[in-house]
Structure formats: C-alpha cells, structure tokens
Write a structure and sequence with these properties.
Helix content is 56%, strand content 13%. The protein is α+β, with helices and mostly antiparallel strands. It has two domains: 51 residues; 71 residues, no CATH class. Helix 2 packs across helix 3 and helix 4 packs across helix 5.
Length: 135
C-alpha cells in the first residue's frame, strides 16, 4: 500500500489502527512493539503528511496565474475586492461569495489578520480552477 508514497508500511498500519480507535498501547501489543515506538512512528507519519501537504500547496502557488502580496495595514474587504478584480481580468471564476472568501482568508492567515486589518504580509494565490491559496 505504501508504494509510491512517502509513508512506510508501518506508518500506514499505525495510522490505520489509530483511525479504527485503538489506543497506542493496543497498537503496540498488536504490532509487538513498544508504546514509544508506536508514538514515534505516528509522529513521523504525521510529519510526512504535513510536509506532503505543504509541498502540494507550494506547487499550486508556483503554478497559479494570480499571486497577490497583501501588505500590512490593508483592509480585508479591499483584499477580497482585489482578488475578484484580478480573477475577473484573468477569466477565473472563484466559487466563494464575498463573506465566505473573507472568512477563508481570515482562517488561513490566522494571526496575520486581526478583525479586518492585515497585520503581517500575506500572499494569496488563485489557481486556474479558482482555488484560493493563502500563505
């Protein structure tokens, strides 16, 4: 099953058993290993998954026809308007309405936005399929 993935067979097995609701101790007994080994295997698997997700996000950004750098002190509403403007110019349809796009940007930017004010520079990319990626 791990063929052509970044996860080992053991990592897949541990994640599968965790998903089934087994505790670390139950998994260790089933696999004939220690709790510490199961925990380390799970931790490494989750790190690998996170790295793979970040890599996919980077590829989307690199291939995106629209990349917008939003400076600090920008108003979130202006950011959303700029995204729609550039998407319209490029002929890309964004499936989010104004409030849901603003909420998505706030969620993905985290602490970089407070209220409607951008506190730290953020980068927004729009893929050809209209997906909004926020860094």
């Amino acid at each position: 099953m791990s063929r052509d993935t970044i996860l080992t067979e053991r990592q897949i097995e541990v994640l599968k058993l965790k998903a089934m609701g087994l505790s670390t101790s139950e998994i260790a007994r089933r696999l004939g290993t220690t709790d510490a080994n199961v925990s380390a295997t799970e931790k490494k698997a989750r790190e690998n998954i996170k790295r793979a997700q970040k890599t996919l996000q980077l590829v989307k950004i690199l291939e995106a026809p629209i990349r917008i750098v939003i400076p600090p002190k920008s108003d979130l509403n202006d950011v959303v308007r700029e995204i729609y403007r550039q998407a319209d110019e490029t002929g890309i349809w964004i499936s989010h309405n104004f409030p849901s796009l603003a909420a998505l940007i706030q969620e993905k930017a985290g602490e970089k936005i407070k209220g409607r004010m951008v506190r730290e520079e953020i980068e927004v990319a729009i893929t050809r399929k209209g997906e909004v990626v926020v860094l």
